[in-house]
Amino acid sequence: MRNRTLADLDQVVALGGGHGLGRVMSALSFMGSRLTGIVTTTDNGGSSGRIRQSEGGIAWGDTRNCLNQLVAEPSIASAMFEYRFGGQGELAGHNLGNLMLKALDNLSVRPLEAINLIRNLLKVNASLIPMSEQPVDLQATALSGDTVYGEVAIDRLSELPVQMQLSVPVSATREALLAIASADLIIIGPGSFLTSLMPLLLLEDLTQALRRTRAPMIYLDNLGRELSVAAANMTLTQKVMMMEHAIGREKVIDGVIIGPGTMAAETIGKRVVIQQPLAADDEPHHHDRNLLHRALDLVLKSLGLSAD
Length: 308
Prior knowledge:
Radius of gyration: 19 Å
Order of helices and strands: EEHEHHHHHEEEHEHEHHEHHEEHE
Distance between the termini: 6 Å
């Protein structure tokens, strides 16, 4: 009997948004169709926010970012998808990929169908699923008691909110729940803690699926300091406790992967802690894909999961 590695797993599910989730999925892209990303859809800033304000719908920016990082073979299609308009006109700052996804969403029955059409165009094998196909925003209650609406405003908070919730109750995408139910490993993060990771954990049916899963759950902490002052001042223990409180199950997170600069407090409990260099040479705040792959294999080994 030998220890399991990522190569032995039938289904890995990663949760997050934007750059962080894209980095994880590109590191595990060798898994192909055995890899699924569940993407945050509450962004209300930048090109995504402008499209939502004028056209409605879910936020597409994080999904587009993940797809960009999963492109293995550059092509005219991928160059078009990554193109961002310059200048001073109405299109200035818009990413063509966001507009393509929104246009396909309007032509499709479901947002997931729009994503799958782009996946086929870009020859991306891994699955990407929006956390919900219904428009929703993130909101929080500040220490002052004021309601703070939207990711952009929440990231400006200097202190942690006393409560976070979604603006309206929405359902998780059915395929996301099925992916969690069949997962052999679940990865949360890295990413903006309050505005990329927590929105996923505010979906009641998604957290119910996370409570029920028997798959090991791993939290990947950020390597760089967050731009959000409130999130940047959180300890590793605070993050783990907040996630588990939202999920509704103690010790549901089995392990954490952190860089050398993170303080790993003893109060993290009996979870596996992998602490080692993980930074990419060219972008120290991003995970190196090979180092991340090895760290995840080390977690599986430390958890004592065996392969037949």
